[in-house]
Amino acid sequence: MRSFKMKRYFNIVFSLLILLISCKNDKKHIIAKTGDNPFNILFIVVDDLRPDLNFYGADHIHSPNLDKLSGESLVFNRAYCNIPVCGASRASLLTGIRPTRNRFLNYMARADVDALGVTSLPLLLKNNGYKTISNGKVYHYKNDDSLAWDKIWFPEGNIRDYQLKKNIKENGGMGQAEGGAISHEMAVVNDTAYFDGKIAQKGISDLKKLKEENQPFFLALGFMKPHLPFNAPKKYWDLYDRNQVNLPESYIQPKTTPGKAFHNFGELRQYNNIPEKGDLTEDLAKELIHGYNACVSYVDAQIGLVLDELKQLELEDNTIVILWGDHGWNLGDHKLWCKHVTFETALRAPLMIKVPGKTQGERTDAITEFIDIYPSLAELVSLDVPETVEGKSFIPLLDGKQSDKDWAVSKFKNAVTLIKGELFYTEWTDDEGVAFERMLFDHNTDPMELENLAEKPEYQEIVKELAKDLREKWGDDFLSK
User: Of 62, 140, 184, 334, which one is the catalytic site residue?
Assistant: First the structure.
């Protein structure tokens, strides 16, 4: 009897002990979930950045700082913007909402107009105790979504950011070409002479102040190069040999591709040294590629300064770093320049995320849309995602899990593209969603998108399936007025 009582007593004590341990573990989980010391977020956007970088397989770009960051991050090999134009892409990403035929249309798009009343990512963070700072070009307009930011800063000066007076004159309201603006500049100046050098220094200054504050932060840095004009200090131009610059293999416009897929690259034509129509000369084309590469190296150096400061301040172990380009860019691909098309060269862009204790240079081929960034960051800092957000969190990829999403949808003007596996299917549609032109590429056999398969008889069943799938995935309100 005594033995039975002792055994019962032991079982009770053991059960209580297990319960206490369980409660203690639950408490630890709750602390980690709600965050006594939540992650900061350093949010870096680079304007017009192509995935022509070493960690994406290129071997001609000098970008040591981006290369180093990639070795500490999860790198997305297949990240796609939802619309290839800066204002719309940024507004869509920061609200987590897809572009439609009547929302987020062009570079003038504003989150606080097209998505009025929606809780953006910075506003969600601000409402949950984060200090939010916007430096440089985060949204297209400095004052867009102004209630989401504790502080907004943009460098002063001519938006084209020329340092040499000969490159631009007082134009009295005339266009850039009439005013004398040219497409690129190579000046013997310090890095801080141009906007991106100033943006980096402002970011460094903010990090020092934030270090002293007992508040998690969302620090957004919007770097402006390699956007046109291709202006950078001469030392970055000197990293490249013009004789080693080549035109892309895809410098062709096949007859099977709909004419609607091409444009006159008006964004580039506005500069005084660019002809009003027709192809560029080979020398000019190579000069532009050289300038673009120089600008990538220049912005890489500025980002490196910020990341070095993050480490020196001992903030990197508690700070998520996410870096993305707002869309791709054509450097002669399909004889095109700029973005504004639905070829992969305009839709695919760099994306990587460094999460302390999680990422160590992993890579993923999972198809990811930019609207997936909002719910992913919210999940990392344990915040509930608003119902308006249409993206899907990619956080399971950080744990090595497979993604069950193999598609993305992008659009520009009347063209809307479904990326599904290795197939890139585009329709040009009217206001009722009826297609009047189609384009299909299979990247398994045609990664440069030179053979349109959409009208070939043997592909009609595939086209029919993709057309149905596109309409299921482009969003419930895609055709809404």
Answer: 140
